[in-house]
Each structure stands twice: as C-alpha cells, then as structure tokens.
Fold this sequence. Notes:
Elements: H1 2-33, E1 37-39, H2 44-65, H3 72-93, E2 101-103, H4 121-136, H5 140-177
Antiparallel strand pairs: 1-2
Helix pairs in contact: 1-2, 2-4, 2-5, 3-4, 4-5
Amino acid sequence: MVKTVIWFMFAVIVTQRLVELAVARRNRLWACRAGAREFGAGHYRCFFLLHAIWLAGWVVEGSLYNNLSAVWYVWLGVFLSAQIVRYWCIASLGRHWNTRILIIPGSTLIRRGPYRMLKHPNYLAVAVELMSVPMIFGATITAVLATMANAVLLLYVRIPAEEQAFQVLAATETEKEL
Length: 178
C-alpha cells in the first residue's frame, strides 16, 4: 500500500515537473523573441540535478521504510499548501514565469500576487515542497539534505544571480524614464 502511494506521488510530481518544463520552454521562446537576456545559466543544471536526486532519494528512502509518517496528513497538507503558492506564482508571472532567469529589456518587475508580499515566494514554496514530500514517507535524510542543498544553491547562487538580473532590469527602467 505505501509503495503504491509513493509511486502515485512520484508520478504526480514528475508529471507536474514535465508540464512546468514545457511551459517554461514555451515562455522562454517567447521571452527570447522579445530580446530576453539570461542570467545564471551556469547553475541551472545544479537545480535540475538537485530535483532529480531529491525525487530518487525520497522514493528509495520511503520504499526502504515502507511506512507513512505518523503525521503524514500534516506533511501532505503542507505540500498541498506549497503547491497553491507555487501555482499562484506561476499564474501571477504569466508568460514571464520560467525555471530560468530571463530579463526582457524594457519590462518591469512584476509585483502582483504573492510577489506583493515576498520577493521570492516560489523559492519558499519549492523549499517547503522539498521538505514536506519526503516527510510524508518518513524520509528525513532526503528531506534534510535536499532542503540544505537547495538553501545553499538559493542563498549563494540563484538569488544573487536573480538580484543581478533585477539590477539590470532596474537600470533599463531608469533609462526608460529619462
């Protein structure tokens, strides 16, 4: 029974990721046609690898324990809440949402939806997801290691690259005003 739940959850998340990658590809093509410049392309593979290892990690670890967490329903609720925030982010950014950092000259920083309250709400949602899914299956090693690796990548690589991109965007906004 638990292994069926693990594989069901795996299928749901893989399907989500494949759909999101297709949307990101479509949005990237649109952004590139609009003259987008990519920032931080070198670290993109690291996140791709992190998510692949995370998926394999909680499937293997959860299968070894073959048991749901005593509070699986809490972790499932946390995961579902993170999904709501993630899809709110995607909807708020529209065609500007991407898994890559793309800046279109002349565009403005989006400040609607969850971006009114937080600068990086999608990263928070993904961090919560990386912790909560393994915890549903008691896969604490995967939960902790993936969350720590994600935090390091976000704090030292991704967010600084995104901040650099925002500075370029702010400079183009200033040029437009002049």
